[in-house]
């Protein structure tokens, strides 16, 4: 099993436009995450994305250390990023190639060497997600649900040990949100899921409530979600 540790991590950010004091985005946080599915919930701007991004080094701690399977994210960034897949809210952020099949092939660049072999492997990945008919389409012609599924397929094709997903269902309609949510929760990988969808959070193994840059509740999802609902009243 994989393990994500935060050891007295603080994240500060410069205030835009000058020498004003820095803002603390994440107050000192220590966590040991070994559960398979971990939900990050909390209000807009509370620090969920920041917490999620620390896991693959997209955000660096201002103090403290983040360890993924014992590897320091700051010092072993490349190794960590091979181990940690990341899915964004807006899949357009990670779909960069002209066609669907080329996009998955790009994800496979470290796994499969030859160009033709890579394309064949990409087609297999697409088929396993029911996306084979879209292989030669431009990514811009896909629906939001198809695009998120494709982004997820591309990340999972690299066989990450951990998947971090930052509000992956927020832009989707009910049906697609359910499809992507079910897929994520059914994965064998360790999952860190920042979400406003409390039903998804309730199906995780552990939930963290983030408020004002701090983890204010941590434990069984039912209890943490209750706490959140009560504090939002
Ligand atoms: N680089 C930065 N510079 C300044 N402020 C930042 C920076 N990064 C994050 N913040 C601020 O820190 C707070 C937490 O942001 P974060 O994106 O982690 O929240 P969130 O819980 O994911 O919010 P949402 O649910 O709206 O996506 C916000 O107030 C944000 O504006």
From TrEMBL:
Keyword Transmembrane carried by entry: no
Domain ABC transporter: residue ranges: 4-233
Superkingdom per UniProt: Bacteria
Coiled-coil segments on the chain, per record: none
InterPro entries: AAA+_ATPase, ABC_transporter-like_ATP-bd, ABC_transporter-like_CS, ABC_transpr_CbiO/EcfA_su, ECF_ABC_transporter_ATP-bd, P-loop_NTPase
Keywords: ATP-binding, Nucleotide-binding, Transport
Alphabetical list of Gene3D superfamilies matching this protein: P-loop containing nucleotide triphosphate hydrolases
GO-annotated molecular function: ATP binding
PROSITE patterns: ABC_TRANSPORTER_1 (PS00211), ABC_TRANSPORTER_2 (PS50893)
Recorded family membership: Belongs to the ABC transporter superfamily.
Name this protein carries in UniProt: ABC transporter ATP-binding protein
């Amino acid at each position: 099993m994989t393990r994500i540790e935060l050891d007295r991590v603080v994240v500060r950010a410069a205030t835009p436009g000058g020498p004003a004091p820095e803002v603390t985005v994440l107050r000192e946080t220590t966590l040991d995450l070994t559960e398979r599915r971990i939900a990050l919930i909390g209000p807009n701007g509370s620090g969920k994305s920041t917490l999620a991004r620390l896991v693959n080094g997209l955000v660096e701690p201002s103090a403290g250390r983040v360890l993924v399977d014992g590897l320091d994210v700051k010092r072993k960034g490349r190794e960590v990023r091979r181990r940690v897949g990341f899915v964004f809210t807006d899949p357009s952020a990670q779909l960069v190639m002209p066609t669907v099949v080329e996009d998955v092939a790009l994800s496979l660049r470290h796994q499969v060497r030859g160009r033709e072999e890579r394309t064949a492997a990409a087609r297999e990945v697409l088929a396993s997600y029911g996306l084979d008919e879209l292989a030669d389409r431009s990514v811009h012609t896909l629906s939001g649900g198809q695009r998120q599924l494709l982004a997820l397929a591309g990340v999972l094709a690299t066989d990450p040990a951990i998947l971090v997903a930052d509000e992956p269902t927020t832009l989707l309609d009910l049906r697609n949100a359910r499809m992507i949510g079910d897929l994520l929760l059914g994965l064998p990988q360790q999952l860190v899921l920042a979400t406003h969808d409390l039903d998804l959070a309730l199906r995780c193994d552990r939930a963290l409530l983030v408020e004002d840059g701090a983890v204010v509740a941590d434990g069984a999802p039912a209890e943490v979600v209750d706490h959140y609902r009560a504090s939002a009243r």
